[in-house]
Design goal:
The chain contains 9 helices and 2 strands. It has helices spanning 3-23, 26-53, 59-78, 85-106, 111-140, 149-175, 193-214, 228-256, 272-293; strands at 182-184, 188-192. Strand 1 and strand 2 (188-192) form a beta hairpin.
Length: 296
């Protein structure tokens, strides 16, 4: 099976999971979304810790980090309320402050183990903040009827850029027999300027399409009334470049760690960290877009 066919199969499965988090009845989908975030956080952080510290080393630390992320995701659900972003950060930091010092205590004057613990702290902080922001986008912002439209804009605006860059870059590479214009070959040899343009067009096109569908104030909901197509196009541009930064940063990390993919869980894509790299950066980008636009 070709890489494109494998990637298409994985994309269909992922879109089906996204549909469940969006279209199921609210009481079902909020648990579905929570479990999905917990699994993605657990798997991606496990892979990231493995890249930084070695796949078969410090497994106890990986369990600590990944299990703590699951606790971060499930805590608001157990409390039957969603924690706002800043109190949520306080909980995350308090949780990991305890775990981090327990890990330091267990290093027993081992400098390598201490380095691994610091790496683990960085992984936990990065993923917990991203998961908290994504949950905030999912629960807090505007809905189109019963559908979390702003969350859809965030996910589809980001991932459509990834898909467009891959499709257009691959097509141009095939047409030019491998002579397309490389973007940053020292970090990611497969990425090209042609793919950048294609991904940018896809991302902007999807954000405009979502706005066109969801801005008609049906079902009594005004969805970003007055923002207009220009502002949506700017959001599409920001989501594309934010996602590209996340993708390139993860590629740089993989090259530093001498690995090709973070894992092999998703055929044609790689690991779960490969899947969420663009979403991690864009969770911060998009949350601050919403903050400055006051899109509550």
């Amino acid at each position: 099976m070709s890489t494109l066919a494998k990637r298409t199969f994985s994309s269909i499965v992922l879109l089906s999971l996204l549909a469940g988090a969006v279209f199921f009845p609210f009481e079902v989908r909020r648990w579905f979304f929570t479990v999905l975030c917990a699994l993605l956080g657990f798997g991606a952080s496990w892979e990231c810790c493995g890249m930084l510290n070695g796949p078969n080393r410090f497994k106890g630390l990986k369990w600590f980090i990944s299990a703590a992320l699951v606790a971060v995701v499930f805590f608001p659900m157990v409390q039957k309320r969603y924690l706002p972003f800043w109190p949520g950060i306080s909980f995350d930091l308090a949780l990991f402050a305890f775990i981090f010092w327990m890990i330091v205590l267990s290093t027993n004057k081992n400098q390598e183990a201490l380095r691994a613990a610091v790496n683990g702290f960085a992984v936990f902080f990065l993923f917990s903040m991203a998961l908290k922001l994504i949950s905030g986008i999912y629960y807090t912002y505007n809905f189109y009827g019963n559908i979390p439209a702003t969350f859809l804009l965030f996910i589809l605006g980001t991932k459509s850029g990834d898909i467009g860059a891959y499709l257009i870059g691959s097509l141009c590479n095939a047409v030019t027999h491998g002579k397309n214009h490389k973007l940053v070959p020292s970090i990611s040899p497969a990425k090209s300027w042609e793919g950048l343009v294609g991904g940018l067009v896809f991302s902007v096109g999807v954000t405009l399409a979502i706005y066109a569908i969801c801005s008609d104030n049906r079902n009594g909901y005004e969805w970003w009334d007055g923002y207009g197509y220009f502002k949506m196009a700017v959001i599409g541009v920001l989501l594309f470049f934010g996602g590209m930064v996340g993708d390139l940063a993860e590629s740089s990390l993989k090259r530093t760690c001498n690995v090709k993919d973070s894992g092999h869980f998703l055929p044609g894509i790689g690991g779960l960290f490969d899947l969420v790299d663009s979403l991690i950066v864009n969770s911060f980008v998009f949350y601050f877009i919403l903050f400055f636009l006051n899109a509550r």
